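Blinded run. Sample ID left blank on purpose so nobody reads anything into the name before looking at the predicted structure. Input follows.
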Amino acid sequence: MESFRNEFAAYVTVDSHLTKAKCIYHLKYMATEATEYFKEQFRSPSAVALPDPYAIRKFIQREQHWEPVLSQAFLINNKILEYCQQQYPSAQTLFPVTQPYGPARAPIAPAVAPEGAPLVGAVVS
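Blinded prediction complete.
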């Protein structure tokens, strides 16, 4: 499934407002498939074949619909809509890139002194 990572990351859900919730669609899809498998296995006297682990990948590559229906109650109770509307800061906002460290580019502290105090090494007239 490692090769599928980029395709799934680029995937946009049918309702584009819920694209951030594609992991929830994926989990719900897997839960539904597992439930159906165990129900069928319970009813059958012989072994039942497992669901195809690459089914979602095939659906996405063929541009077919695979997303399970998320009811309005499910969306509200699990605050999915609020989750999808959140804006997350970028990594550069959280960890701004300043000049790189190293012997030639050691960080230089700005020359700031408390009000009224002269800067160290500053010429006072």
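Unblinding after everyone has recorded impressions. Helices lie at 5-10, 22-43, 55-61, 72-77, 80-85, 91-94.
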